[in-house]
Amino acid sequence: MDLAIVGPAQSGKTTVFNALAASHGQHGDARREHVAAVKIPDERLEKLAALVAAEKVTHAELRLYDLPPLFEKGRAASGEAAESLSRADGLILVVRHFRRPDVPHPLGDVDPGRDIDLFQSEMVLHDMGIVERRLEKLDITVRSARPEEREAGQRELAPLQRARQYLEDDQPLRDHMAGGEEARALANYGLLTLKALLILVNLDEADIGSAAEIEGEFRERYGASVGAMCARLEAELGELEPEEAVEFRRELGAAEPAAPRILKQVLDTLGVVTFYTPVGTECRAWPVPAGTAVLEAAGRIHTDMEKGFIRAEAVAWEELMEIGSFAEAKKRGRLRSEGKQYVVQDGDVLHILFHV
Ligand SMILES: Nc1nc2c(ncn2[C@@H]2O[C@H](COP(=O)(O)OP(=O)(O)O)[C@@H](O)[C@H]2O)c(=O)[nH]1
Ligand SMILES: [Mg+2]
Questions:
Q1: Angle of the 13-22 helix axis to the 231-239 helix axis, nearest 10
Q2: Largest CA-CA distance found in the chain, in angstroms, rounded
Q3: Closest Cα to atom 3, ligand 1: which residue?
Q4: Is the CB of 14 within 6 Å of ligand 1?
């Protein structure tokens, strides 16, 4: 899963990127300049790994992209940034709430609400451009096409026309078209307002005590996924040794690290559920979109598992922790046997049976 960090200049995008990438032991190799692979902190995975005495624990990962400012002076993203943006499954929109007189705001004053509104309108305009260009082209194609091609063109037209309607009303597409067949038809256009969006309010150091309150205010106003953190503080604490960081946090009144909470919000925003596979000596977490059938989930692990799928043995994480082992769960008849249509539930521990 790819997440693009977007927002106005100087809102703290790079700082957020560093704060999230520094979390959970991400120093070193996984981190390139503008891309970071971030392990998703997962307490369930760690407890499960301990239960089955796994030698190797593999966390689910997100890829974060730190993008240059978009829509500045009407400019769209270009080159590599445009590609990362178009491919991303979701966006983290960073807006500035921190004050800092020494860091000028490009619009003069600090007003996160205005910045959110402006950015949302820019995204709508961006998508409108894409949809209109595509519709124009299709219109020509359909009119000059042979009958059998005409039909395919018309099938593509319908969702685009619906999208144009919403965009004309200044409505982000995710509120109306996400998840369904139409969204799939539009998936390859790189439409920004169709992507999952987490608004990340970048707090002032002085406001960390009221993070939850501010988060609540913005959520009420925007009816959307909202997170709040002080990115600079978290990035700096992320550089420290863990014991030192704990000490500093206590002094600052920022009890819990923000990154795990924000990453969890990212997963929720993406509509992702996590299942677990303790196989041999490895215990692993797998993120999949909510609603994924176990057959497809098996295919994520290995194509052979999908091709030769027989059935899955499943047990909920809580239940397994309580029972103590897969073998004991089986003995007590608590392992469910699920066919390929079974929809994977968050927290499922799965054993997939397949023939090669
Ligand atoms: N006080 C404070 N300053 C921040 C915070 N986040 C970023 N900054 C500062 O704002 C400036 C711009 O941050 P940067 O991450 O480079 O912004 P970008 O242009 O969006 O990538 C830098 O001087 C940061 O130190 C924050 O949470 N609190
Ligand atoms: Mg930057």
A1: 40
A2: 73
A3: 232
A4: yes
Q: What is the atom index within ligand 1 of the atom nearest the CA of 231? A: 27
Place of tokens 């501010």: 214
The length of the chain is: 356
Joined together, the tokens standing for residue 195 give: 């992507």
Query: What per-residue confidence (pLDDT) applies to 74?
Result: 66
Q: Residue with the nearest Cα to atom 5 of ligand 1?
A: 232
pLDDT digits (tens, 9 = 90+) for 124-182: 999 999 999 999 998 888 888 888 888 888 888 999 999 999 999 999 999 999 878 88
Tokens describing residue 113? 């609400």
pLDDT digits (tens, 9 = 90+) for 48-70: 999 999 999 999 999 999 988 88
66's tokens: 């730190």
- Global pTM value: 0.90
How much distance in Å is there from the Cα of 18 to the middle of ligand 1?
A: 11
Please work out whether the CB of residue 10 comes within 6 Å of at least one atom of ligand 1: yes
Token output for 206 = 């002085």
Dihedrals phi, psi of 6, to nearest 5 degrees: -125, 170
DSSP-assigned states of every residue in 299-347: HHH-HHHHHTEEEEEEEEHHHHHHH--HHHHHHTT--EEE-TTPBPPTT
Rounded distance, CA 260 to CA 92, Å?
15
CA–CA dist 158, 340 (Å, integer)? 32
In the predicted model, what is the mean pLDDT of the chain? 90
Distances (CA, A) of 22 to 41, 225, 233, 239, 355: 12, 23, 12, 7, 41
Mean pLDDT of 71-77: 72
Cα angle vertex 28, ends 27, 30, to 5°? 95
